[in-house]
Amino acid sequence: MIKLAGGIESGSLKGKENVRGYWKKALEKIPDLKFELYEVTSGINSVALFYKSVMNKKAIEVMFFDDYGKVNKMFAYYTD
Asked: DSSP class of residue 47?
């Protein structure tokens, strides 16, 4: 979605300012953005969300936490 919605060719975001800018653009394009949560699972220092995203795509996002409980890495997967 980063590549598609944000026009960011690498498909990756690094740093708070880049994440903030991405979400600012997304919310300007789709101000009533909504997600439907299907399931939440957890693992060692991680959590995975399974949900319905924009354009009715199913998505899985996996977030990994550092020693301070902050997300330090995240991967997102979407259906075609």
From this structure: E
